[in-house]
Write a structure and sequence with these properties.
The protein has 503 residues and is an alpha/beta fold. Strands 2-1-10-9-11-12-13-14-15 form a nine-stranded mixed β-sheet. The chain has a four-stranded parallel β-sheet with strand order 4-3-5-6, with helices on both faces. A four-stranded antiparallel β-sheet has the order 16-17-19-20. Strand 5, helix 5 and strand 6 form a beta-alpha-beta unit. Helix 4 packs parallel to helix 5. It is globular and about 70 Å long. It starts with a helix and ends in a 6-residue tail after the last helix. Bound molecules: adenosine-5'-triphosphate and magnesium ion. The site of adenosine-5'-triphosphate has 24 residues, from strand 13, strand 19 and strand 20. The site of magnesium ion has 3 residues, from loops.
Length: 503
C-alpha cells in the first residue's frame, strides 16, 4: 500500500524538492532520487533486523533525508514516529519507553543523552543524522546499494504514530494507518487543487501532521515541487516567496510576515494559495492580510488524531473566524453534553467520522474507547457551532471552557471582545479557581507597542458588553503569550501562572 510513492509523477526526473542553503548533502531532489533513497533506507532498516510494524523514532532537524526516512517507513511497513526537536531528555525518555522502538535516530548533539536512554530501555539501535546529511545513519545507509521491495501493507496497517502537541496534557500517541494518510492526502490535494505546476514553500516542522502530512502529501501526491526551509525565518520566506505558488503556515507565520512593509502585494502577486491552521487565525490577521496582499488566507482545521477535517472553500467565500466545511468523505456533527445532535447555530462538542480518523491511541485502549461514541464518532474535544450555511466555527476546547458559578463561559467570545479594543494586540482568557464561583475567568493581555490600558478600564468595558458572569475577575498585562512550536497558546501554563489570582 505504498500509495504515496505510487502516485509520484510518471516523469520521475521532475524536481520534487529543493533544499537551498545546506552546507552538505544534495540540494535538488528529483522524484526518482526520493524514491530510490527511500527504498535504500528501507533495505538498510531491514538489514538491521527491523520487520514490518517495528517503530522508528526520529528526533532530528528537518532535512530531505528525514523525509526519506518517513518514505522508507511507508515502503517497508515500519512505523514512523517523529518527535518534536524541542523535547529534552525527560520527555524523550518517557516517549521512548512508551513507543518501544527498534531504532532511534537522533541529532548528533543528542547522542550522548539518547545513548543512556536507549541502553536503559533496551532499544536495539541508535543512529545519528544532522540537517546536512551527516551522522552514523548516513554512514550506514550509504553502504546499502540495493532497494527493499515495497512491503505489502493493507489500508488498516499502522503507518505512523504521531504524538499530539500536549496542549491540554501529556502528549498522546495517535496511531495512523496507511489508509488514514492516503485518504486525507488525496482529499486535501483535490480540494486545494494541487497540480504538478505548483511550488510549495515549506517552512513548517515535519514532526507534526501539518508539515509532514498536510504539506508533503499535497505536494508528493500531485507531482508538485517543494522548496524546503529548515525553519520559519521571515527573511528566507520573503526571499523564496516569488518562486512559490502555495504557502502553508500557522497563524504566527502570517503575523510575522505582516510585520514588515516588504511583505506586500507585489511580492505575492503570482501566489495561488495561502493556508492556515493548527491554531485560530484572528479575523483581524485575515483582514489585514487581505488588505495588504489581496489574498484571502484559507483556514482549515484538523488534529493529529484525524488529519484535516474541514477547510474553507477554494472557490467561494472564505469566512474569517471559521474553519469551513467538512472535507470529502469526512462528516462532522455538534453534540450536546447528553449526546443529542444539535441544530445549526447551537454550541456543543464537535465529533468527526471518516476515513481520515485514526484507530486509537498507542497503548491506551481505555482512553481510545472513551474518545469514541458508541456509533463510531470521534470526540475531538473541541467546542464548535455549525452555522446555517454549513461553516464550522470553533469556539474553543472543552478543556478550556470556564464554568463560573454554574454558567458556561466560552473564552473565545471574551477574547474577541478584548482583542477588538484598540490598545490590545492579543489576549487569552483562562479559568482559575475562585472561592465563590468555583472557577473564574482571568484575562491575560498583550498590548500593542506604546499603548496603555489598565485593568479597571478593561474590565469595565467588558461589563458593558456581556453578562456579568462572563466578565473576567482579573486582568493581567504581559509581554507575550506562551506559545508552543505550532503557535498554540499554552493555556495550561497560564492556568498555572494565575492559579492563585482569584483565591
Ligand atoms: P493535546 O491533544 O495533546 O492537548 P493538541 O490538541 O494541541 O494537543 P494537535 O493535535 O497538534 O494537539 O492539535 C489539534 C488541535 O489544534 C485541535 O483540536 C484544535 O483545538 C486546534 N486547531 C487546529 N486547527 C485549528 C484552527 N484552524 N483553529 C483553531 N484551532 C485549531
Ligand atoms: Mg488534542
Amino acid at each position: 500500500y505504498t500509495l504515496i510513492e505510487a502516485s509520484f509523477p510518471e516523469d520521475r526526473s521532475r524536481v520534487a524538492l529543493e533544499a537551498p542553503g545546506r552546507s552538505h548533502g544534495p540540494l535538488i531532489w528529483s522524484f526518482a532520487r526520493l524514491a530510490s533513497t527511500a527504498a535504500r533506507y528501507a533495505a538498510f532498516f531491514a538489514g538491521l533486523g527491523l520487520v514490518k510494524g517495528d517503530r522508528i523514532v526520529l528526533q532530528v532537524e528537518k532535512s530531505p533525508e528525514a523525509l526519506c526516512v518517513y518514505l522508507a517507513c511507508l515502503r517497508g511497513g515500519f512505523v514512523f514516529l517523529p518527535l518534536n526537536t524541542a523535547y529534552r531528555t525527560d520527555e524523550i525518555d518517557y516517549l521512548v519507553g512508551d513507543a518501544e522502538p527498534a531504532l532511534v535516530i537522533c541529532d548528533p548533539s543528542m547522542e550522548e543523552a539518547l545513548r543512556e536512554i536507549t541502553a536503559r530501555r533496551g532499544t536495539p539501535h541508535l543512529l545519528t543524522l544532522d540537517a546536512n546529511a551527516r551522522g552514523s545513519f548516513m554512514d550506514g545507509a550509504e553502504k546499502v546499494r540495493d532497494a527493499l521491495p515495497a512491503a505489502v501493507c493493507a489500508a488498516g496497517d499502522l503507518a505512523a504514530i504521531l504524538y499530539t502537541s500536549g496542549t491540554t496534557g501529556k502528549p498522546k500517541g495517535a496511531m495512523l494507518s496507511h489508509g488514514n494518510l492516503a485518504a486525507n492526502g488525496i482529499a486535501l490535494r483535490d480540494v486545494w487543487r494541487f497540480t504538478e505546476d505548483d511550488v510549495l514553500l515549506h517552512a513548517l516542522p515535519i514532526f507534526h501532521a501539518h508539515g509532514l502530512f498536510v504539506a508533503c502529501h499535497c505536494a508528493l501526491l500531485s507531482g508538485a515541487k517543494m522548496i524546503w526551509q529548515q525553519k520559519f525565518e521571515r527573511a528566507d520566506v520573503i526571499r523564496e516567496l516569488p518562486r512559490a505558488t502555495v504557502f502553508m503556515g500557522v497563524p504566527t507565520f502570517y503575523t510575522r510576515l505582516l510585520s514588515g512593509e516588504d511583505f506586500n502585494r507585489d511580492l505575492v502577486r503570482h501566489m495561488r494559495l495561502f493556508t492556515s491552521g493548527s491554531a485560530p487565525l484572528l479575523a483581524e490577521t485575515f483582514e489585514e492580510f487581505r488588505a495588504r496582499t489581496g489574498h484571502a488566507i484559507l483556514e482549515r482545521y484538523g488534529m493529529t488524531e484525524t488529519g484535516m477535517n474541514t477547510s474553507n472553500p477554494y472557490d467561494g467565500e472564505r469566512r474569517p473566524g471559521t474553519v469551513g466545511f467538512p472535507l470529502a468523505g469526512t462528516q462532522v456533527r455538534v453534540v450536546s453534553d447528553e449526546g443529542a445532535v444539535l441544530e445549526a447555530g447551537e454550541i456543543g462538542g464537535l465529533q468527526v467520522q471518516g476515513p481520515n480518523v485514526f484507530t486509537g491511541y498507542w497503548r491506551m485502549p481505555e482512553k481510545s474507547a472513551e474518545e469514541f461514541t458508541a456509533d463510531g464518532w470521534f470526540k475531538t474535544g473541541d467546542v464548535a457551532m455549525i452555522d446555517v450555511d454549513g461553516y464550522v466555527h470553533l469556539v474553543g476546547r472543552a478543556k478550556d471552557l470556564i464554568i463560573s458559578g454554574g454558567f458556561n463561559v466560552y473564552p473565545k467570545e471574551i477574547e474577541e471582545l478584548v482583542d477588538d479594543m484598540p490598545e490590545v494586540l492579543e489576549s487569552a482568557i483562562v479559568g482559575v479557581p475562585h472561592a465563590d464561583f468555583g472557577e473564574a475567568g482571568v484575562a491575560v493581555v498583550v498590548l500593542r507597542p506604546g499603548q496603555m490600558l489598565d485593568e479597571a478600564t478593561l474590565l469595565a468595558r467588558l461589563k458593558e458588553r456581556v453578562a456579568n458572569f462572563k466578565v473576567p475577575k482579573r486582568a493581567f498585562f504581559v509581554e507575550s503569550l506562551p506559545r508552543n512550536t505550532m503557535g498554540k497558546v499554552q493555556k495550561n501554563l497560564l492556568r498555572g501562572d494565575y492559579k492563585d489570582a482569584c483565591r
